[in-house]
Automatic annotation (TrEMBL), chain A:
Protein name from the UniProt record: Acyl carrier protein
HAMAP family (alphabetical): Acyl_carrier
Record PTM: 4'-phosphopantetheine is transferred from CoA to a specific serine of apo-ACP by acpS. 4'-phosphopantetheine is transferred from CoA to a specific serine of apo-ACP by AcpS. This modification is essential for activity because fatty acids are bound in thioester linkage to the sulfhydryl of the prosthetic group.
Keyword Phosphoprotein: yes
Organism: Thioclava indica
GO CC field: cytosol; membrane
Molecular-function annotations in GO: acyl binding; acyl carrier activity; phosphopantetheine binding
NCBIfam families per UniProt: acyl_carrier, PRK00982.1-2, PRK00982.1-3, PRK00982.1-4, PRK00982.1-5
Domain of life: Bacteria
Main location: cytoplasm
General function of this protein: Carrier of the growing fatty acid chain in fatty acid biosynthesis.
Domain Carrier: 2-77
Localization, UniProt: Cytoplasm
Annotated gene: acpP
């Protein structure tokens, strides 16, 4: 896993309080990791801070899995 | 009880009668306060009166950019933001049939839209801290209506609906959103009423007198306190029994 993927994973584990091995690339925040809609907003905020980027609302809507987040951040960073 | 030590509070409309008293009450409870308003002079006088732990953050709430900048300015000045009191309000009274679009819109802009933007701008910090208090000062007329105040009553009623919705959204993050709804309080705003209007009003107030800004401030301090953590989405009426709703 890349450095970005590791950092994303760490944020997800900390924020959602889930087991590390559940945070796979295809894991959906809402369907697999038990996040609610507010959690997803908070995760996006946490990613913005961690990586010093801005994630616009329309892009944030499309970030539904761990892999989506890693892909977006890799392209934006 | 109701100790606010270590909390950071932003109060809008702090140059007005009720706002200044709210700032005093929060400061007396131990909070660091950011005093906002359009007129700098009374804000600075209040800051001087309060001494340490009082910051002046002027803002013009009819200017969207100024509104967006205010929470950030308050956080920079104080070092955090735990309590937001949306107290600022304007009136442009007139009968509905003669009310201009401007008078309608300016009251909605300042009393409702700016309050929403300030809430939105404060939430990130509060949600991260898993602790926050938002207190919106509404008005009895938001629920009872008042002739000549179709704009003001609409804005205040709107603020109640907005508060309840936001309360639902952020309750799980330790952030509460409540309203304090004053009845008739002796301030510059109610001084404008004629003697006839005032005596007519007295007959409708079971307690038999106007309220004081201090009585509003005390309600705000309670809702801002750790003890009020289980109270959210509520409207605390402080109106001398004028309307029991």
């Amino acid at each position: 896993m890349s450095d970005i993927a590791d950092r994303v994973k760490k944020i997800v584990v900390e924020h959602l309080g889930v087991e590390e091995d559940k945070v796979t690339e295809s894991a959906s925040f809402i369907d697999d990791l038990g996040a609610d809609s507010l959690d997803t907003v908070e995760l996006v905020m946490a990613f913005e801070e961690e990586f010093g980027i801005e994630i616009p609302d329309d892009a944030a809507e499309n970030i539904q899995t761990v892999g989506d987040a890693v892909k977006f951040i890799t392209e934006a960073a | 009880m109701f100790d606010l030590k270590g909390k950071y509070a932003l109060v809008t409309g702090a140059s007005g009668g009720i706002g200044a008293e709210i700032a005093r009450a929060l400061h007396a409870g131990g909070a660091i306060v950011a005093l906002s308003g359009t007129r700098v002079e009374p804000l600075e006088a209040l800051a001087a009166e309060l001494g340490e732990g009082a910051h002046v953050c002027p803002a013009n709430l009819s200017d969207p950019e100024s509104v967006e900048a205010l929470p950030k300015a308050a956080i920079t000045a104080m070092g955090g933001l735990d309590i937001l009191v949306n107290n600022a309000g304007i009136t442009r009274d007139g009968l509905s049939m003669r009310m201009s679009d401007d008078d309608w819109q300016s009251v909605i802009d300042v009393n409702l839209t700016a309050a929403f933007r300030l809430m939105r701008g404060s939430l990130r910090t509060m949600m991260k801290a898993r602790w926050g208090r938002i207190i919106n000062i509404t008005s009895i007329v938001g629920q009872t209506g008042n002739p000549g105040q179709v704009n003001y009553a609409a804005a205040k009623a709107g603020l109640v609906g907005a508060s309840k919705s936001m309360a639902l959204e952020v309750a799980s993050r330790g952030v509460t959103v409540n309203c304090v709804a004053p009845g008739f309080i002796a301030t510059a705003m109610t001084d404008k009423l004629s003697e006839d209007q005032k005596s007519g009003l007295m007959g409708q107030i079971p307690v038999g007198r106007m309220g004081t800004p201090h009585e509003i401030a005390a309600a705000v301090r309670y809702l801002a306190s750790p003890e009020a953590g289980y109270v959210t989405g509520s409207v605390l009426h402080v109106n001398g029994g004028m309307a029991m709703i």
